Amino acid sequence: MHDDDQPPRAQHTWHHLDEEALATLAQRLAAWLRADPGRANLRLTLHGELGAGKTTWTRHLLRALGVQGRIQSPTYALVEPYEVTLGTTAVTVMHADLYRLSDPREWLDAGLAELMDAPGLKLVEWPERAGRLLGTVDVALHLQHDDDHHRHLTWQARTAAGEAALLALRSTP
Ligand SMILES: Nc1ncnc2c1ncn2[C@@H]1O[C@H](COP(=O)(O)OP(=O)(O)O)[C@@H](O)[C@H]1O
Ligand SMILES: [Mg+2]
């Protein structure tokens, strides 16, 4: 059975988040990763319609992890890699947007399987496009429109690591 067929280990929804509140959650996740860089071997998928805020969430997280300069949406490149330093540890972050992947087999052809299996933090928009090739997902994030300026964010923890991160996010005031 595939992971996605199982109910999440833990789930929480934050309602009516403006972009600042969304950024605050991304910053808390970054702080949790920074406290123990070993935590950064995490695979996070981002679900939600166009304009839901998947790239916006990712940008805030990358900024909070110390990425400077322009953060492009990898809509055409499929994957944009970043190197960040957490404490003294170098961590590779992969931001993928699979919207333009028309066939899961392209996933293999483009060498994405190797990239995704390498250590580091993975942030994947439109994971549905990779079918079941993506492998184990620690966290599935679902973004939904509330109104023009607010979103609902559901965090589905699918592994112990994803659950630990959720506990940390919820316990910070
Ligand atoms: N509360 C919010 N959270 C996230 N994005 C928001 C919010 N309010 C407005 N927005 C805007 O909605 C748009 C989301 O676009 P984007 O992040 O590119 O979506 P996606 O990657 O899901 O297609 C951005 O222009 C962003 O500024
Ligand atoms: Mg996007």
From TrEMBL:
KW Acetylation (keyword) present: no
GO terms of molecular function: ATP binding; metal ion binding
GO BP of this protein: tRNA threonylcarbamoyladenosine modification
InterPro entries: P-loop_NTPase, T6A_TsaE
UniProtKB keywords: ATP-binding, Cytoplasm, Magnesium, Metal-binding, Nucleotide-binding, tRNA processing
Broad class of where this protein is predominantly found: cytoplasm
Pfam family, one: TsaE
Protein location: Cytoplasm
GO cellular component, one term: cytoplasm
Gene3D superfamilies for this protein: P-loop containing nucleotide triphosphate hydrolases
Record's keyword annotation contains ATP-binding: yes
Family designation: Belongs to the TsaE family.
NCBIfam families: T6A_YjeE (TIGR00150)
Alphabetized PANTHER family for the sequence: TRNA THREONYLCARBAMOYLADENOSINE BIOSYNTHESIS PROTEIN TSAE
UniProt name for this protein: tRNA threonylcarbamoyladenosine biosynthesis protein TsaE
Gene name linked to the record: tsaE
